[in-house]
Design a protein that fits this description.
Layout lengths: L2 H25 L6 H31 L6 H26 L5 H21 L1
Helix pairs in contact: 1-2, 2-3, 3-4
Length: about 120
């Protein structure tokens, strides 16, 4: 598949993710049905953030590295988008449980950095 088709698919995922997150925010109450509302909230936010971070990361890589192959940028940007989205969503879950402190957030970021270093070392 071509690069533009992948980017279009990621853009569509971002649009649907943000739209579904908006619907969840406006239409579902966590007090009436807490489990489904929270599951849909975190799932739609994760998809929206992943696609958004992937697109931003891809275009930032293309802008900074003008002479490199672009196919690798999509995979790396998508992986980093997933990791950044995991940081945000896990941080929100910790905050909801009232256990988020600054060192928990720092440990979460460090864990994701170590995971990224692992994937970079495999390449």
């Amino acid at each position: 598949m071509s690069r533009s088709l992948y980017l279009f698919g990621i853009l569509i995922a971002a649009v649907f993710g943000w739209a579904s997150w908006g619907v969840v925010i406006n239409k579902l109450s966590p007090y009436v049905s807490p489990a489904p509302a929270l599951l849909l909230f975190y799932t739609s936010l994760f998809i929206a953030l992943t696609a958004t971070f992937a697109l931003l990361g891809y275009y930032l890589r293309v802008w900074l590295n003008k002479h490199e192959v672009y196919a690798q940028h999509i995979n790396i940007a998508l992986r980093q988008g997933v990791l950044l989205s995991m940081i945000v969503c896990i941080g929100l879950v910790f905050q909801r449980l009232r256990v988020l402190t600054w060192w928990d957030g720092l440990l979460l970021v460090l864990i994701m950095i170590l995971i990224e270093f692992y994937f970079m070392a495999k390449e």
